[in-house]
Specification:
AB_hydrolase_fold, globular, 234 residues, Rossmann fold, Dienelactone_hydrolase-like, eight-stranded mixed β-sheet, 8 strands
Length: 234
């Protein structure tokens, strides 16, 4: 089925924002909220949604920077876009972002063709938000790729009732060794959390075309993600 943009209404009544929605050919399946990196709903994020739709998921990528600059799409290969992305990241309200994720989860659960289950997948900033979604929303499953700042919110892990999968790049330029160790210390024994380390990999190793893209590691992480989603969402 063709992809389209939909409109979501903010939980706090402050306005509305768009989301890119890709549906499986059957028009039915579990829902997945795809949480963007710091570059907006750009081509890589839309491609991830399309790929998930091909696997049978209703994939929705909301615009998380809509309060600052609606509809922005940035290119990770252009320096001025990197600069703008970090400005948006620094001005991003995490708590309102989590509210937007809950809104998207609720929308997917009620959508025509939904099986009633919904999870999240996030990358970079989105990896952090995926972790917080596991802690603060009703997501049935959450997957975080090279999430930043997770070590600052480890005290929330006890709130996780769904299931969480984290992909950790051991040479992540934005998540140092101390942060990685803190994550393992706090999360390894949690019954609902699985961490996988990718030795020698840097941040964004699963972003096709990116500076640190590694096909072998990306495939391993993506295969693990699909198996996890199949188990948790159907």
């Amino acid at each position: 089925m063709p992809a389209k943009y939909i409109t979501l209404n903010a939980k706090d009544g402050s306005g509305s924002y768009t989301g890119y929605l890709a549906l499986p050919d059957s028009g039915t399946g579990p829902g997945v909220v795809v949480i963007q990196e710091i570059f907006g709903i750009n081509t890589p994020m839309r491609e991830i949604c399309d790929q998930l739709a091909n696997q049978g998921y209703m994939a929705l990528c909301p615009d998380f920077f809509w309060r600052q600059e609606p509809g922005i799409q940035l290119n990770d290969k252009i320096q001025k876009d990197w600069d703008r992305a970090f400005e948006l990241y620094q001005g991003f309200d995490v708590d309102k972002g989590i509210d937007d994720i809950q809104t998207a989860l609720s929308w997917l659960r009620k959508a025509d063709g939904s099986n009633g289950k919904a999870g999240v997948i996030g990358y970079c900033l989105g990896g952090f938000l995926a972790y917080l979604s596991a802690c603060r929303t009703d997501a049935d499953a959450a997957v975080g790729y090279y999430g930043v700042s997770i070590d600052s919110k480890l005290d929330e892990a006890d709130n996780i009732k769904g299931h969480l999968l984290l992909h950790v790049a051991t040479e992540d330029e934005f998540v140092d060794k101390a942060a990685q160790q803190a994550m393992h210390n706090a999360l390894d024994n949690h019954p609902h959390i699985t961490l996988h380390d990718y030795e020698g990999m840097n941040h964004a190793f699963a972003r096709p075309g990116g500076t640190h893209y590694d096909e072998k590691a990306a495939k391993k992480a993506n295969d693990r993600t699909l198996e996890f989603l199949k188990t948790r969402l159907g």
